Amino acid sequence: MERKHMGMNDILPLELIHRILLRVPAGDLFRLRFISKLWHSLISHPDFAESHYDLNSATSSHSHFFLLKDDTNAWCVQLDTLFDVAAAPTTHKEVSLPSREMPSFSCSLFRTMGSCRGFVLLDKKLDFLVIWNPLTGSSKTISYSHIKVPRYDLIRYGFGFDASRDDYLIVLSWHDDYNQHRLVCFSLRTNSWINLDASLPKYMSRWKYQLFGWFLHGAIHWLCYSRDYIDDGILIFDLKERSFSKISMPQQLVGDYPITFTLTILGGCLALYLYDHDNHKTEIWVMKEYKVPSSWILMYEIPYGNNVPICMSNGSDIIALNYTPRYYWLRFVKYNVSGELLNYSPRPLFESDYFYRSFCVYTESLFPFPGDNKDRDKKNKTGM
Amino acid sequence: MELLCIRQWISGLLPTWLSAWCIKPVGGALVRQEPEYILLALMGSPLKKIMLCSSEKEIFSVEEQVMVQHSVIINNMIEDGSYNHEESKIPLDCVDSKTLKKVIDYCTHHTHHHNDNQEDLEAWDAQFLNVDSNGLYDLLMAANYLEIRNLLDLIYGTIKNMIKGKKIDEIRRIFNIKDHGFTPEEEEQNRKEYPHFY
Questions:
Q1: In Å, how far is B76's CA from the nearest CA of chain A?
Q2: What is the DSSP string of A25-63?
Q3: DSSP structural state of residue A213
Q4: Are the Cβ atoms of A32 and B165 closer than 8 angstroms?
């Protein structure tokens, strides 16, 4: 075949095409499976999603912002295109939430409970949970209405991935009718509930902690606090060992009750942020070294308005959701370490009401549910 | 005295802690550099040249430092002493003359202009990669063979941008993918299920 009739698939070795595809954003990869059979086999290979995610999850360019609009729709915004004025009209798209066959007993809206490896966890209060990958569309609905909670606001959620068992776990914690602290988790791989009451440390019973945890380094993290401040800190539940541990918060924040600060993850590190009403600024503390309490530093002081930090960009800039009371606008802003405003989104993207709606940040991925690949291989073997 | 002997003599004179301070860029990453090389450079030794031989048996002479900084393969050949400056040339049977000339061009520019500001370098890179897709593939394979990290990343980024956001028919056209390998039934099914991808 003459050179000019040859295409990329004929000229480049497989290894190089594979490496090119690893660098393409996940959003495009879903579509690229249909370019040719070769690309389809490369992208659908069981190890590809993992390699792709590992290569790209560290870069903020793959972060997406997910905001619930109502019971049926949500917005997905690609964070690195937010400040690109040329792309402004198309930066966000509306997606339909996966349809559910289960009847809904409460009329409350969905809430987001965090994300993990491209999956977003949605909760319909005290009714059911939905794990959903907005990119591939695969979703699973899990009912938990069998869990009887005396008060709806006492249940706590956590969502993470257990690499040792290749399993996604949803952890639920609450106090039952006898004021006993309970802990269960749902394993996606075995599609079953596991009782973890035995893992609960004795000292935990009097703690309150935040509504949902954050997944990092194979463990789920919750901010926990109590009236006597003695055991305030960050609670860590290791998904492999199924055991709890604790690390402390910055000294300067201890004693602040009721809690005004919130736990989040920025740039792969645990972070705490709070809004200082008197000085109209947002303080962000970052634990630079994981599990080293002495590495907590006050990294950012962002002025003007209530800013909720969402993710880190370019290694040290912060992208935040800003609610400016003066203009009743809800926009994205970008600040650097010195607190200087670098950029803000071209026009208010959403109505101000949506500031109080549930949102989360996720990284697009092509991961299937655990066990799905096995089914596919089985099908191939039996020639189905 | 041959370079290897000078090296050994100098390294015998220098304290071992000095090597911790000596780093140099190789293939886009920073590696430890033996202090004797730094000393030789400081002493103003003449710029050593090496010979590269393309698949078409054409010989290109290029500064040793330029290639050593960018290509891990060439750097390793020189470090382990398998390359004899007086006699040998490095045969690169996978790379044709046209591509080899471009690769040398890239490495030379980036070595001599590494202090330029980011915008100028990016503009030069964009101009450098203004080639047809066949030329791009040849450059990619050469950069991969010679393990030139920054050129590889540059080309990956360019191809990624050529793919990003485009529909399937257009991508097939750009990369000249004529035979997609799906059966007519499969192709029709895909088009029906996801019309907006095409």
A1: 22
A2: -HHHHHHHTTT-HHHHHHHHSHHHHHHHHHHHTTSGGGE
A3: -
A4: no
Chain A nearest-CA residue for B182:
A37
- Interface A–B counts its CB contacts (< 8 A) at 69
What are the φ/ψ torsions at residue A287 (nearest 5 degrees)? -90, 95
Per-residue pLDDT reduced to its tens digit, A230-252: 667 888 999 999 999 989 888 88
Return phi, psi of residue A49, to 5°: -60, -40
> B189 or B30: whose pLDDT is higher?
B189
Residue that the structure tokens 């380094």 belong to: A217
The answer to whether residue B165 neighbours chain A at the CB level (below 8 Å) is yes
Show residues of chain B in contact with A3, CB under 8 Å. Answer: 134
How far is the C-alpha of A190 from the C-alpha of A313, rounded, in Å? 37
Neighbours of A14 (CB within 10 A): 11
Confirm if A189 and A370 have CB atoms less than 8 A apart: yes
Residues of A in contact with B179 (CB under 8 A): 9, 36
Could B175 and A8 be called an inter-chain contact, meaning their C-beta atoms sit closer than 8 Å?
yes
Question: Chain centroid to CA A13: how far?
Answer: 36
Chain B residues touching A11 at Cβ < 8 A: 134, 137
A205 Cβ contact partners less than 8 Å away, ≥ 6 residues apart: A181
Half-sphere exposure of A294 (CA within 13 A, CB side): 0
Please tell me the pTM assigned to this model.
0.77
Residue B89 has φ and ψ, to the nearest 5°, of: -125, 155
Contacts of A20 in chain B (CB under 8 A): 156, 159-160, 163
Q: Which domains does chain A have, with CATH numbers?
A: 50-370 (2.120.10.80)
Question: Is the distance from CB of B198 to CB of B169 less than 8 angstroms?
Answer: yes
Beta pairing partners, A225: A208
Q: Are A270 and A290 in contact (CB under 8 A)?
A: yes
| CB–CB contact A28 B133 (8 Å) | no
**B190: amino acid identity, one letter:** N
* A303-313 burial: b if 16+ Cβ within 10 Å, else e: ebbbbebbbbb
Nearest CA in chain B to A33: B168
The C-alpha atoms of residue A221 and residue A27 are separated, in whole angstroms, by 29
| Residue A220 three-state SS | strand
pLDDT digits (tens, 9 = 90+) for A48-75: 998 998 888 766 667 888 887 777 778 8
Selected for mutation to probe chain A from B149, B161, B171, B193 (highest A CB count within 10 Å) is: B171
Q: Compute the residue count for chain A.
A: 384
The contact set of A with B (CB < 8 A) is 3-9, 11-13, 16, 19-20, 23-25, 28, 31-32, 34-38
Number of other CB atoms surrounding residue B111 within 10 Å: 16
DSSP A347: S
Starting at the edge strand found earlier in the chain, the sheet holding B90-91 runs: B59-63, B49-53, B90-91
